[in-house]
Amino acid sequence: MDLLYLLYSLLRRKWIIIGCTVIGLIAGFVFTLFKQKTYGSVAQYSTGFTMEKEVSIKDNAGINIYEIDLRFSNAIETFKSPKVMNMLSYKVLLHDLEDLKPFRTLNEEKKNSNEYKLVNVEQAKQILRSKITAMELLNPFDAEEKKVFDLMYLYGYAPEYLQGKITIFRADRTDYLVILCRSEHPELSAFVANTIGQQFIRFFNSIYGLRSQESATKLDSLASSKKRVVDSLTEKLKTFRIQIGTPNVADRASAAMTVVQSVTSNYQQEQAKLNNLRGELRSVESQLRDITSQSFSTGNGAVVNNNAAIRALEIENQNLEIQKNGKSDEEIKKLDDQIEANIKKIAQYKSTGGSSADRQLRQNRTQTRQEDLVARKSDLEQQILAAENNVRLFGEQKNYYDGITKTGGGDQVILDAQERDLRIASQEYEQLKKSLQASLDLDINPQNNFKQILVAQPAYMAEPSRRSMVLGLCGMLMLFLSSFIIIALEFFDSSFKTPTIFQRNTKLKMLSALNKLNLKKKPLSEHFKDTKDVEADGTEFALFMENLRKLRFELANSGKKIFLVTSTRPKEGKSTVIEALANSLSLTKKRVLLVDANFSNNTLTQKFEAKPTLEQFSFAGQGNVVDKFWGITSMTTIPNTDLVGCSGGNYTPSEVLPKNNLFDHLPKIAESYDFVFVEGAALNNHADSKELAAWVDGIIVVFSARSSFAQADKDAVQYLNSTGDKFVGAVLNNVEAYNMEL
Q1: If phi over 0 gives left and psi between -120 and 50 gives alpha, with beta otherwise, what is residue 198?
Q2: Is the pTM of this model over 0.90?
Q3: CB within 10 Å: which end of the chain, N or C, has fewer?
Q4: Which of 187-191, 379-383, 420-424 has the lowest average pLDDT?
């Protein structure tokens, strides 16, 4: 497809493109004219994702940008979760049912609908309050809740509708989430922007609150236990200092040996403990990986007040801590196990109290199991960290005191060992206090430190309609769309259309290209009545005449006299071309004979009302063949032009023509004429033209510019090329005037 042709195609249809563009502009104007006004409100929340406030024994390595981006994405998706969006829908619907100034009021048609008549408004309010409190979703299979569900859709407060009004995004390079709501009511926009954040925070608190409380409780217990160890070591060091007074140098070697034995024993115990802790940590991590989802379900039950039992267990733990003083390691371990069991009971008592939603949420066994494993993992990581430090220090002490045994030790060596033990315990205690303080500084959980820093306010003015931008977009869209459709239609149109495309596809010699004439408006014969001033017939006929003269010149200089005019397909314009040639040749005072041998479609015979004598003519050798020939000819309206007509039928020349027929004597008859044109049937459908080719001097094939080049046409062209010098050339007929030069 030529780019120049495509460009001209667009120019020819410029008024269509301009009309489509105008229609687009009108559509955009109507859209903005009747578009409902919208009011936008913005709320902003601080997430705390970029603040280093995680509860951990280890120091934070720094801020992970990719992890923070992931947290923002998770938070935005949670805002759009069914739980949060449904709670928002319930809140908005409850507002319209209770408030004296609802955001939306139903029209009479909706009030008369079954969805509105069947619902009990007071009962609907009660159901909505209970669902909001318990963070439960409406059950469409429950008869009463189904009515509330239908009422929510009747008001247009369905979760999917509200979600389409809300835009949630992170403010660039900040710690803030922005909530933008657009609706037809300014107060509705502000209410939605503020309420969705509240429901989001409720949802997160219900999931992570219990786990964070248990982690803080465990840290408090570890810090208290480590404080007792520090106090015990301090008292032991103080007592030893009083006992030894001034150290005896003679006893240093034996004392150092004792310390080496003690340190070696401690080193081996800590190493074994560290291996056990690491194995248990791997087991916990494996169990955590197996739990792939968290499901939170709710149940009904009465609220239980366990404050007394919880207080009793806390007092018991305090007494057990006091009993550890002066006990052996085995007895202290038993007391620690009992304290740990009491802590779990306290967590269980807390899970059975509180609101209905919290109680039901915590009853889920899978979630409880996961939270226990997370707490256990945190405990194991803390113990592993402490054990690793102990193993490293005991190893250093063992090497140090092993060297002292060779030079002597004594009380000073023992004193140094006790001071190092005290220093290690003090460092661990300070680290635990720091982690505990960090957990108390956060609201509930470091991953849920959301705060609303900008409260959405009702908009004073509606948002601009942006009419100019909409009109521009609509106009440009229609401009490009109409242009694209026109180009697509031209691109997928495989017809010849232009002489250039015809020659490139067929590779045939083209005698001339004849432009299209409107023969329904004015017959061809009328055009030739006055050829002195062709401009009177319009520029199309003037162009046609010039190209017809080129064709006449080519035939006159071909050195041939008898021509077969055929085509590859029917109705390509053979008869019209023959008639036009006869008219053009008559202007030069040439005598022309037309023979209609197109038995399948005898157009020339019918148009000039000629006698159908071709099939009956036979010369048996009596008299002069020319004299007998004059009896079968018919005169036409074209000057100096005769016609031999045919009856027509489903047969070929070899089947219907008798012996000594007209074609056998055509060279003799042609002596009375300057040119003889024989019309044959289409090559793709009939064999007539191939049989007639033996009796003519030259072959002319006519193509229509509206036709395409199919495989059958290629076979016909191959046959024409095989005729050698007989093939004179091709005529491209019915070309649009604006395509003649392309």
Answers
A1: alpha
A2: no
A3: N
A4: 420-424
